[in-house]
Amino acid sequence: AQSGVPFACKAGACGTCATEVIAGRGHMDPQSARELCTLGSVGLDADKYRLPCLSDVHGDIVFGASARGAGAALPTREVVVESWRPLNLSVCEVRFFVEGGPFEFQPGQYVIMHVPNRQDGKIVRRSYSISTPPSERRHFEVCVRAVAGGHASNYVHRLRPGRKLQVEGPFGDFVLDESSKRDILMIATGTGISPIRSMLTHLLYFRSDRRVRLLFGLRNEADLFYTDLLRGLSAHYPSFEALITLSQPSNWTGHKGRVTDLIDRYVTAADSSNTDVYMCGSHGMIHDASAKLLALGFPAAALKHENFY
Q1: 3-state secondary structure of 135
Q2: Which of 13, 23, 41, 119 could connect to 62 by a Cys-Cys bridge, CB 3.0–4.6 Å?
Q3: CA 237, CA 205: separation in Å to the nearest integer?
Q4: What is the pLDDT of residues 87-123, one digit of tens each?
């Protein structure tokens, strides 16, 4: 197998990891509709290329060349750090100014940042969801959790105003369906709130009258962030309700337990016929939440998700 396959989104949306399969194609999972769509969008033959990030391998595989190559890149934009602020002890928010004119994206999409490797100077690409609405046409923000040993996340935490870097994008099909008039249920854990925040503030900007509920799960009090923002959105958006739960609280008077527990308490089978669902967070949370919602009668087509970790 080839080593060093480039990757970015790890969710089959950007096509960065598209790689030719020379032998052993039958030892990979069948191609999903998402994989076929992404390969088509980047002009690659689905009978020749695969997206390794979307498939488990069940035997020997011989990979050929990456479609984009380790050094290839999509068109990029230069951005400048305007501000940096901590949201809690492990999560920061960075605001960027986009050089070269308006930056168009859909609520829920992400960018791929070019992060220099301190050891060899080579660029690695890492994806971060945009947390602000598209109405901010020359700016966008991301919120990033620092991970022990995580080169890219710690690089973002060291950014300060005036620093310039390159970004690719926007990418992603985890986007708000603005043509729908249905109610909205959003479920997020940790920094999975990023694309959800973009959707929420976009809805508020256009004064949508759709009923929106957010179920937001964190571990403990030290992990709390965006609580003031959510209170403000609730005050200005009468149809919006945010429920925050902590799974390991110490002195918390609010909801307790996993975010999926809130589904049992506040989501019913009656909601299934008129509700779009957007979920972002860990793979385990999305798996468990989807199972609960499907059991309540929600159609699979109504469930959109983005895995963060």
Answers
A1: coil
A2: 23
A3: 10
A4: 999 999 999 999 999 999 999 999 999 999 877 778 8
Residue whose C-alpha is closest to residue 196's, from 226, 168, 221: 226
Beta-carbon count within 10 A of 272 CB: 17
Number of neighbouring beta carbons within 10 Å of residue 308: 24
Burial status of residue 127 (CB atoms within 10 A of its CB: 0-12, 13-18, 19 or more): buried
Question: For residue 284, what are the CA distances in angstroms to 9, 12, 267, 291, 305?
Answer: 18, 18, 19, 11, 12
CA distance 10 to 13: 8
pLDDT given at position 7: 62
d(CA 240, CA 211): 6
How far is it, in rounded angstroms, from Cα 88 to Cα 254?
19
Q: How far apart are CA 219 and CA 193, in angstroms?
A: 14
Q: Report the predicted TM-score, pTM, of the whole model to 2 decimal places.
A: 0.83
